[in-house]
Structure formats: C-alpha cells, structure tokens
C-alpha cells in the first residue's frame, strides 16, 4: 500500500531505526544488518554497523542475476563527438569486473584510494564501480579544476592510482588532461606510483611522453586485455565508498566521506520515493560525474534502481544548440530529467520561446528536477510553461549526498510553491534557528540546521579528519548539523532556501570558495589586500568579483590587474571559477580587529538591507564602496 508524504515523514521521525531498517531490506546484503543507527560515537553516527554488502554488486550483478542482464544500464551520448553507445547491464558488469581486475593487477586493494580525473565518458562509470567492487575508495575530481587543485586532492587522499583520459572536449577547445596530471603530481608531496590512461583520439599528448619518471603510465585498453575479471568483495556497511572534495570557506578543500551501506539505501530509497524512477525507466542527469549530483544520479542511484542512465557529454547550449536536452529526451525516451537552473537560464537566453522544443517529441518526460542552486521563480515559471510537466526544485549539498528538501514525487506530488524546494525529505529534521540556536517563528529567516542524526547516505566524516568534521558542521549548534545555508519555513512547512551564510559561492551550479580565490589574488605583487564576493549574475546565479587595495606605490591599471588576476585564478583554481571582474578600491571595510566585513559587502551587493557591526573601524569606507558594489544604487 502506498503512503502519503505526511505518513512517511512521520514514520521516519517517530522510529528512524525501524524506518531505515525496513528501507534497507530491498538491497542485497552479504550480511543483513540487524541495527540501523550506531550512536556510540555521537555526534558522529554510523549506519548499519553490522551489515555487509557491495555497492557495485547492488548496482550491477543483482540485476543481471535477476534476469535483466540484457536491459539497458548506460547510454553514452556525446554531442561533442556525435556518437551514441548503449551498454546493457551484462555488458557494463563485464567491463567493471575486468577493470576491477586491472586495479587489482596494479596493487589496489580494499581501502586504497584511486583518484579519477575523467570527462563524461563511460570509463567514468566503469572506474567508479570497479573501485566499489574491490572496496577501493574513489575520489573523482572535476575536469574543470586546475592542476593545483588536483594536487591538493592528491595530497589529501594519497591515491595509489590515478585513472584518467588523454583529454576532455569543451565546445570551443580540447582540454589536454595528461599535462595537467603531470603538473599536479609535480606539485604534490604524495607520490602516485601508477597512472592509467584511457586513450581518446585527437589529443596532442600520449602517455608514452611521460614514461621514464618514477610513475608508471599505462594504457587502459592494454591493461584490460590482460586482466582477469573480479567478483564483488563484501565490505562493511561503514566502509568508505568514496571521497568527494568540496569547497569550504578556506582554500583547503574538504574531503566528504560517503559510506557504503547507508548510501546504497539512500540511493535506492530516493530513486523510488523522491524521483519516482523505477526499474526499466530512463533517467537523464545533465551534470558531471565530478559533482555530487553526478555521483548520486548519473551513476549510483539509477543503477541501484535498475534504471537506464544517460551519460551526456555536451552542454545545454552550443552543442550544437539550445535544443540539446530536448533531443536527448526524445532520442532516449527519458522519463525523468535532472539539471541545474543555470542550464535552463542558458537555454532560455538562447531560445526564449523554446522554439527548438517543437522539433522533438518529449512526451516520455514525467518530471524535471533541478538542483545545485536556488531555482528562481522566473526560470521555474518558464520551464513549467514550456515543458508541461512538474518542475521540481530539490535542495541538497555535497555533504548530504541526496536531497534534504524536495517535492517527493515518487510518494505523492505535493502542491508547488515557486521559490521553494517544497518540504523536508523523510529522515531530515530541518529547523531554522537564530545565531544563538533558538528556533525562530514560521516565515522568519535564520540558519537552516538539521537535527542529528542525519539520515543514511549523508557524510560519515571528512577524510582523515573527524575533528574538522565536528568543528565545521557539528559544533556551532550542538545536536545539529549546520548546513551553511539560510532560509525559512513558511506556515505550511515549506522550506525556502535563500543563500549561504559563509564565503562559499555558487557559479553556474559550481560550488567555489571565495577564500581560495583571495589566496590567489593576495599572491599578486601589486595587491596589498583583497576580498572576493559573489555578486548576482543573470545567467550563472553568481559570479566572483574581487575588490582589491593596491600596495602603496604600485602602478597598474584596473584593466591590466584584472587580466593578470583572472589568469592567475584560472591557473590556480581553474576555468570554472569564471573570475573576470576586479575593482581597485581605496580601502576595505574592516572591524577594529582587522576582520574584513565580507558579509556586509555581500548584503550591499545583493541589494539587501545591510548591517554594519558597531566594531567597524571607519564607516566612511562603506559609503565609498556602495556605488561599486551596487552600481545602480
Ligand atoms: N573540463 C575543462 N574545462 C571545463 C570543464 C571541464 N569539465 N567544464 C567547464 N570548463 C571550462 C569551460 O570550458 C569554460 O572555459 P572558458 O573560460 O575557456 O570558456 C569555463 O570552464 C566555464 O565553463 P562553464 O561553467 O561551463 O560556463 P560556460 O559559460 O561555458 O557555460 C553554462 C554556461 C550555464 C551553459 C554552463 O555553466 C552549464 O552547463 N552549467 C550547468 C552546470 C551544472 O550542471 N552543474 C552541476 C550542478 S548539479
Ligand atoms: P554543492 O555541495 O556543490 O551541491 O552545493 C551545495 C550548495 O548549493 C547548498 O549549500 C546551497 O547553497 C546551494 N544549493 C544547492 N541546491 C539548491 C537549491 N535547490 N536551492 C537553493 N540552493 C541550493
């Protein structure tokens, strides 16, 4: 019998132990868990402490053993190459088992880390699932990050192997990966013994150019042709499946650790109850495997559910036009489509009347989900009107791995309110508190916090750093996880997420640290001090803008400084930061103890009522900045 959202949410809150043990029953366990929550190390919780399973087995073997080996698991659609390729569950399983054998042959065992730096090609799925198969811990790094960011991740995760390709294809250029890997390895203190390279035609660099150092560079296909397939290895539910780095407020990225059992349950449960995707359905998630959305809903979620997943190598616009998504839905008869609001804005800008929709049959589509940033009411209205299916905003973070708030379409489609990702998902007890941790009335904005324990599938800790995990997320409001977002719950219990409370910004759905950009700017010889804040951008949601005070005597024009700083950010963080705006200012607003008032600057730039702390050193600095921060003011 199906339950309503209200009944399901109540059941998850009243008896989480029972609720999540029941949810675990639909997976294949090597040892069934008898307990759901382990609170013995609270505030750090673990899920299914006595259970054992293998996530790759649940994503592949389970479906093949059930006689569904010939159904489609993966559709690779490359708009940049103009090719499509289908993999059945049996075929994908073969590839994964063989690549697991490759990893084994390179000395990778349970618990060893494998860094994956791949574009949107099937090898990404294969490498991730092969790691899971032998209990190795993968860490996928997004291809748009620069070698320095890659080096930071190599040093933190200390991988035994890097799996990569000769390059990725952007609409306007080919991005060579091998020089970036070599550069990153040069910059990192940790030595990586082995690099495995998937060859793609049309790239200048080949692995053979890098032979001769103390790292072995191998060809994927050569190793695979000699490898023995490997069976799935049962691991403890608490065994780490992957590390995914995300930006925090400082320059050093945080390695979010995902467990195996809790995550598998969360994927299985959310596919059915949130996304309404079932065996045999097709899901298209147009994100990147380097982001959390890609991990959960391009790779693990759809495969655990026994659905087909579309792996799209291309962009929403320009490959070749703003009809790319509609073509994908038509070609692959997509049931559920997931993208970022910025992608919809890009399509709308290029094709405001969605004329390109007319050339495609999108009748298979049941719902469109969006996440990664706030879905503005304007874009929401446009998508609803043009697509004629429910458009569902869902709010979550790399840390949580799956939605905190959503319209639970699989359970029931609730009334939608523009600007709101609807209601807390079962398992997440969401509250709004003021700076002292006291609850605020409905309708009033405050810090969004979640009562511990978080549900299964959420971050287990930060890689090798329980202390940073507790300090960053669990200390500010004891008993709660601090999301870093602010917002409010309305009288009907609908959540509205309004923005970050810290220095994290979101550029075209990419989460970036302004602190990391400030570090880069600060290294320029003419820069005395600086602040980077996110300013509103019509297309990308936010874009970074640097406010710089020059060293006395420094002679450089704003234009030249901007050019140099933009290229430094590109080199040190990566092109995705899209840093191209700099203002030279006389002074930055500070407290008497020297802290830059970034929050006040952000509030002014966002056109909000701004607060100036009484400890400000010189209030006139703010007055001078207002015309620069808010040019139309
Ligand atoms: N490898 C190498 N470079 C990459 C890259 C990758 N995987 N992804 C992006 N870049 C580069 C781009 O080539 C571009 O470089 P350029 O400055 O030389 O042109 C730069 O990073 C910025 O790229 P992008 O963020 O894609 O911006 P854009 O202006 O080219 O395109 C959008 C705008 C809106 C179409 C695009 O940002 C987009 O598709 N966003 C959706 C993002 C998304 O799905 N996020 C996941 C959240 S769930
Ligand atoms: P990431 O970890 O990259 O997924 O980024 C998470 C952050 O993106 C969140 O903390 C929010 O600030 C923002 N975000 C993601 N999805 C939404 C959404 N649906 N509505 C509002 N903000 C969102």
Topology (SSEs and partners):
Layout: H1 5-14, H2 16-24, E1 37-38, E2 46-47, E3 52-53, H3 55-68, E4 72-78, E5 83-88, H4 89-105, E6 113-117, H5 122-134, E7 137-140, H6 147-157, E8 161-165, E9 167-170, E10 173-176, H7 178-187, E11 194-198, E12 216-219, H8 220-226, E13 235-236, E14 242-246, E15 254-258, H9 261-273, E16 282-285, H10 292-305, E17 308-313, H11 324-332, E18 336-339, H12 341-350, E19 367-370, H13 377-387, E20 391-393, E21 405-406, E22 423-424, E23 430-433, E24 446-451, E25 461-462, H14 466-474, E26 480-489, E27 495-500, E28 504-507, E29 510-513, H15 514-522, E30 527-537, E31 541-550, H16 558-572, E32 582-584, H17 598-605, H18 620-629
Parallel strand pairs: 4-17, 6-7, 6-8, 8-11, 11-12, 16-17, 16-18, 18-19, 19-20, 31-32
Antiparallel strand pairs: 1-2, 3-13, 4-5, 9-10, 14-15, 15-25, 21-22, 23-24, 24-26, 26-27, 28-29, 30-31
Bound molecules: coenzyme A and adenosine monophosphate.
Adenosine monophosphate (AMP) binds next to strand 26 and strand 27.
Bound molecules: coenzyme A, adenosine monophosphate
Report the uncertain regions.
none
Kindly report the name of the CATH homologous superfamily of the largest domain: ANL, N-terminal domain
Over all CA atoms, what is the radius of gyration?
Answer: 24 Å
CATH class of the largest domain: Alpha Beta
């Amino acid at each position: 019998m199906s339950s309503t959202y209200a009944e399901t949410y109540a059941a998850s809150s009243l008896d989480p132990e029972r609720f999540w043990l029941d949810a675990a029953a639909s997976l294949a366990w090597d040892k069934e868990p008898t307990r759901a929550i382990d609170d013995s190390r609270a505030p750090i919780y673990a899920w299914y402490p006595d259970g054992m399973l293998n996530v790759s087995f649940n994503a592949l073997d389970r479906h093949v053993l059930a006689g569904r080996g010939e159904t489609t698991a993966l559709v690779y659609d490359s708009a940049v190459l103009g090719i499509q390729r289908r993999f059945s569950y049996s075929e994908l399983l073969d590839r994964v088992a063989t690549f697991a054998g490759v990893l084994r042959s390179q000395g990778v065992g349970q618990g060893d880390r494998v860094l994956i730096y791949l574009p949107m090609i099937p090898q990404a799925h294969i490498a991730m699932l092969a790691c899971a198969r032998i209990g190795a811990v993968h860490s996928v790094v997004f291809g748009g990050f620069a070698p320095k960011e890659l080096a930071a991740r190599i040093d933190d995760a200390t991988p035994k192997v890097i799996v990569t390709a000769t390059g990725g294809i952007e609409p306007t250029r080919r991005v060579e990966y091998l020089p970036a890997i070599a550069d990153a390895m040069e910059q990192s203190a940790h030595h990586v013994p082995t690099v495995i390279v998937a060859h793609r035609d049309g790239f200048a660099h080949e692995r053979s150019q890098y032979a001769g150092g103390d790292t072995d560079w191998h060809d994927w296909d050569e190793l695979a042709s000699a490898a023995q397939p490997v069976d799935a290895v049962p691991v403890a539910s608490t065994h780490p499946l992957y590390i995914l780095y995300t930006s925090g407020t400082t320059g050093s990225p945080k390695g979010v650790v995902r467990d195996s059992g809790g995550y598998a349950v969360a994927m299985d449960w959310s596919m059915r109850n949130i996304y309404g995707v079932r065996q045999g359905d097709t899901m298209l998630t147009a994100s990147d495997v380097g982001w959390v959305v890609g991990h959960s809903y391009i790779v693990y979620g759809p495969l655990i559910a026994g659905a087909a997943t579309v792996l799209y190598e291309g962009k929403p616009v320009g490959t070749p036009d703003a009809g790319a998504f509609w073509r994908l839905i038509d070609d692959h008869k997509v049931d559920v489509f997931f993208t970022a609001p910025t992608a919809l804005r890009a399509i709308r800008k290029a094709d405001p009347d969605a004329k390109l929709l007319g050339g495609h049959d999108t009748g298979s589509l049941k719902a469109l989900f969006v996440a990664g940033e706030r879905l503005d009411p304007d874009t929401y209205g446009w998508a609803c009107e043009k697509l004629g299916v429910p458009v569902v905003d869902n709010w979550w973070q790399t840390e949580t791995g799956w939605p905190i708030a959503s319209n639970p379409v699989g359970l029931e489609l609730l009334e939608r309110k523009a600007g709101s990702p609807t209601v807390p998902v079962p398992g997440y007890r969401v509250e709004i508190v003021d700076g002292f941790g006291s609850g605020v009335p409905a309708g009033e904005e405050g810090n969004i916090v979640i009562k511990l324990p978080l549900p299964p599938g959420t971050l287990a800790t930060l890689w090798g750093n329980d202390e940073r995990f507790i300090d960053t997320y669990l200390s500010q409001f004891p008993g709660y996880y601090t999301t870093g977002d602010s917002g409010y719950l309305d009288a009907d219990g609908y959540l509205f997420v309004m923005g970050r409370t810290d220095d994290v910004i979101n550029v075209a759905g990419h989460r970036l640290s302004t602190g990391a950009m400030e570090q880069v700017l600060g290294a320029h010889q003419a820069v005395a001090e600086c602040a980077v804040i996110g300013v509103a951008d019509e297309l990308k949601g936010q874009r970074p803008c640097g406010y710089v005070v020059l060293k006395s005597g420094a002679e450089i024009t704003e234009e030249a400084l901007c050019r140099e700083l933009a290229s430094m950010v590109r080199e040190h963080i990566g092109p995705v930061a899209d840093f191209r705006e700099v203002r030279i200012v006389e002074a930055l607003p500070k407290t008497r103890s020297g802290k830059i008032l970034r929050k006040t600057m952000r509030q002014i730039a966002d056109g909000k009522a701004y607060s100036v702390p009484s400890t400000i050193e010189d209030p006139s600095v703010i007055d001078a900045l207002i015309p620069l921060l808010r040019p139309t003011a």
